Amino acid sequence: SQELEQSPQSLIVQEGKNLTINCTSSKTLYGLYWYKQKYGEGLIFLMMLQKGGEEKSHEKITAKLDEKKQQSSLHITASQPSHAGTYLCGADSGGGADGLTFGKGTHLIIQP
Amino acid sequence: GAGVSQSPSNKVTEKGKDVELRCDPISGHTALYWYRQSLGQGLEFLIYFQGNSAPDKSGLPSDRFSAERTGGSVSTLTIQRTQQEDSAVYLCASSLGVGAFFGQGTRLTVV
C-alpha cells in the first residue's frame, strides 16, 4: 500500500516569512492533492498535481511535484495568520478503489 | 447544497449503542469516500463507493462497521455496538475525478 510521509510534523513561522512543507511517497504518485484543515472545519482542497515537474500556484501558495513523481513540496511565501492550520497531502493510488492515502499532516502556526 | 454535508456534526453515544452517520455528497459526484481521523492520527481510509457499489470494503475496521449508498447519492455509515476506540471524527468526501471535496465531519464520542 502507498504511504505518505510529511515533514515537518509541525512548524512555527514568524508572520511574513516563507516556509516549505514536504510530502514523500513510497510509490509513484498518480495524483497528489494538497488540503488544508482548520480546527473545527472540514478539509479544504488547495490543488492537485499529476505530471512530473508540474507546479501550481494559488495566491501565495505554490506546490510542486518532482520529476520522478514521488515527492511534492508546498511553499508559502510571505506567510500570514490566515495560513495557519494543518496541511495534508493526499495521494491517488491510480485505481480509485483504494481511495486517497493521506499523510499525517503538518501543523502550521504563524506567529505575529 | 453546494458542498458535502454530514450529519450530525457531533454525536455522543453510550458504549454498546448503534450509531448512524450520514453524508450528502455534492450533486452529481459519483465517487464517495469515508475516512476516520482519530486524535493525533492521520486520515484512515474506511470505504469507497463508485455509484452505489463499494469495490473495496477492506478498510472497515471491524464487522461492526457497515456502509451503504443508495441512488448514487446519500451514504450512511453505521457502527454497531460502539466501543470507546470508535471515538473519532468521521469524514466523508465526494469526487467527480479531480480532487475530493470533504464535509465538515461528524465528531463521534463514545462514553
Question: Can you identify the CATH class of chain B?
Answer: Mainly Beta
SSE string of chain B: EEEEEEEEEEE
Oligomer: heterodimer
CA radius of gyration of chain B is 13 Å
Helix content of chain A: under 10%
Query: What is the total number of structural domains of chain A?
Result: 1
| Secondary-structure-derived class of chain A | mainly beta
Features:
heterodimer; A: 112 residues; mainly beta; Immunoglobulin-like; 6-stranded mixed beta sheet; 5-stranded antiparallel beta sheet; 55% strand; globular; B: 111 residues; 7-stranded mixed beta sheet; 4-stranded antiparallel beta sheet; 51% strand
What does this protein look like?
The complex is a heterodimer of chains A (112) and B (111). Chain A has strands at residues 4-7, 10-14, 19-25, 31-37, 43-49, 55-58, 61-65, 71-76, 85-92, 100-102, 106-111. Chain A is globular and about 40 Å long. Chain A has a single domain (4-111), classed as Immunoglobulins (Immunoglobulin-like, Sandwich). Chain A starts with a strand and ends with a strand. In chain A, strands 2, 4, 5, 9, 10 and 11 form a 6-stranded mixed beta sheet that branches. A 5-stranded antiparallel beta sheet of chain A has the order 1-3-8-7-6, with no helix packed on it. In chain A, a hairpin with a 7-residue loop joins β9 (85-92) and β10 (100-102). Chain A has no helices and 11 strands. Chain A is mainly beta. Chain B is an all-beta fold. Chain B has one domain (5-98): Sandwich (Immunoglobulin-like). Helices cover 0% and strands 51% of the residues of chain B. Chain B has no helices and 11 strands. Chain B has strands at 5-7, 10-13, 19-24, 31-37, 43-50, 53-56, 65-69, 75-79, 88-95, 101-102, 106-110. In chain B, strands 2, 4, 5, 6, 9, 10 and 11 form a 7-stranded mixed beta sheet that branches. Chain B is globular, with a radius of gyration of 13 Å.
